[in-house]
Specification:
The structure is a homodimer.
Chain A (H helix, E strand, L loop, with lengths): L4 H8 L3 H9 L6 H13 L6 H8 L4 E6 L8 H13 L3 E6 L4 H13 L4 E4 L5 H10 L4 E4 L8 E5 L1 H14 L4 E5 L12 H15 L5 E5 L4 H11 L5 E5 L2 H14 L8 E3 L16 E3 L2 H18 L6 E4 L2 E3 L5
Helix pairs in contact in A: 1-2, 1-3, 2-3, 5-12, 8-9
The structure holds a DNA duplex.
DNA sequence: TTGTAAGCGTTATCAT
DNA sequence: ATGATAACGCTTACAA
């Protein structure tokens, strides 16, 4: 605990108002008193208690950011951007990690609200009516990044469905005759928010219909490597590509392919989603879709700060553009 | 803003003391009053203001963690661990990002202290007497992870010097005749805390002396790729290995080698430091040194929490064991 | 130039 | 079973 204004006042034999005036350089203070106050403050390392300050003027100048899991890589890239943007505007950014727990995410959001964060950014793993109501009940500006909870909550995202359609079009244009979509287990949909993946899946379904000569398949479970193996064995002649709803699936497939002595795109085509930053280190260069995380993050903070400023929390849906990155695995 | 205890009291026509008793389920409250209070609280989404609560009993149950840059990968791996460990003990973890700015780091630490964090974890990029005094002046438990500031500040780390010696020994045992150490620009040492790298460099120097048949060289600037090229051209017959003080240098060298059509370890040996988690996705498997981040992080939180509990902030230096990971690039 | 008093929302102590 | 009061550290009128 550092010294308080009251203690300084006592030590200097003046009132705390005077101390405040000296410390904050406002109002007028006698030269001697000012000097004495400042010297005592320095000597005892006076440091304002921001809890007290915030408590009385009702502002903390702090934002909360809930992140799933820092090893996840996806959302992590946004954190620097969010932080930089918030700092420019004088806000302090508090990041908390929910470690993939649905319950944990709720508790953290609650905790941030109780700590009087002025706004919260999330890429939520919770979903559903109850969660929506929970968020709304906080009466704090909240912006969702990537994952959509409800139209009553502001969301910044890319059009994932359209992105998936573009991805399929690219694959089709390269002459593939079979496209397999790899995504998270569909069973978790009931509890967990995988909106982005769902949208991509929808896009995939819509897109493959356009190509009557292309067969399609969906793999939605953890055993995808084994299934891929089967597929490649059963249709050795058919030019097959795997479209992954997430680069990390693609990376695992690359690693597996390497072990099996398969070449990409020689033996099969591969495409990811998200353009996570570790792709820079990986070869061959993965063909993927950039979901414009930088743009999404920047827009999300800007929107959040604007809601705080204007006190207008009316929900918006903001869509940014994605980009198909045609690299070396198709 | 949610409803406050006072407002509930007013609405229910009772005193705030009674409201508190009802909300916290302690003391005795009449059945009717209790029900009324609880229903009003629920209706208006009562949420305790933790700023006020903390102000009152002087505890925030929050820890601050300062991270350099989430793209950096090195420290990021610890964040989940820190968070998990702190949560077990009932603490809330606030992560802030300093974005590689020396000034930023100081400001953030200050900000965390002003927000009454009960303890702070840092892998500091600042160094020197002044910074040390700054940290000490906060009178808050602080634990440094990896980078050392001064013996007056508790630090949890591995013996980097010994680790570097072990690395050199491994390289020597594989028959290399020239070892080149790649590290950050030495010019930044004056301002920036690169203690771990300095220690590794010292270890490197000490180790190569033991081998009279091995020549050594140190590259401490950004142009290392060009210099490596020159070295390989000039001594084509000499078996050369590059020991990098950080896996990301090694990854860049791998990428470059690939572009140049060089094979590892065929054309040169390569070894990194830290065992960052993206190595899992990279092939060939990089030979490196694990600096036991998990252990360091766990120990750091535990130590921090202990200091908070016991109110004994006396500085310690805690060393954990490293492990040389002999994989496929030597 | 300096001080007094009330208030932010919560809690703890001591009454009734 | 309920309430009054002071306190945490800071801010902001409003005096003097």
């Amino acid at each position: 605990m550092s010294i308080t204004v009251n203690q300084i006042a006592e030590k200097c034999g003046v009132s705390r108002t005077t101390v405040l005036r000296a410390l904050n350089n406002q109002g007028s203070v006698g030269k001697n008193t000012r000097e004495k106050i400042l010297s005592v403050a320095k000597e005892f390392n006076y440091r304002p208690n921001l809890l007290a300050r915030s408590l009385n003027h009702g502002r903390t100048m702090s934002l909360g950011v809930v992140t799933i899991n820092v090893e996840n890589m996806y959302f992590v890239q946004s954190l620097n951007i969010i932080n930089r943007e918030a700092e420019k505007r004088g806000y302090f950014t508090n990041i908390v990690v929910c470690d993939e727990s649905l319950e944990g995410e709720r508790k953290l959001i609650q905790g941030l609200a109780e700590r009087q964060m002025e706004g919260i950014l999330i890429s939520p793993i919770n979903k559903g009516k109850e969660f929506e109501e929970f968020l709304l009940s906080l009466h704090i500006p909240i912006v969702c990044i990537g994952n959509h909870v409800s139209d009553s909550i502001t969301t910044v995202q890319v059009n994932e469905m359209k992105a998936a359609i573009d991805a399929v079009d690219l694959i089709a244009s390269k002459g593939y005759r079979k496209i397999v979509f790899i995504c998270p287990p569909l069973a978790v949909q009931k509890q967990q928010n995988i909106y982005a993946h769902e949208q991509r899946l929808l896009g995939f379904g819509a897109a493959v219909q356009k190509y009557s000569h292309i067969t399609s398949q969906i793999i939605g479970d953890q055993e995808y490597l084994r299934k891929i193996e089967t597929i490649l064995h059963e249709n050795p002649e058919k030019k097959t590509a795997f479209l992954c709803s997430g680069d990390s699936y693609a990376l695992n497939i690359m690693r597996w392919g390497e072990q099996e002595g398969l070449s990409i795109p020689g033996d099969f085509g591969l495409m990811g989603f998200d353009n996570i930053n570790i792709l820079d280190y990986i070869s061959p260069k993965l063909t993927t879709v950039s979901t414009n995380l930088e743009g999404v993050a920047t827009t999300a903070v800007t929107e959040l700060l604007q809601q705080i400023d204007t006190k207008d929390y009316s929900p918006k849906s903001i869509y940014l553009n994605h980009a198909v990155l045609d690299r070396n695995t198709l």
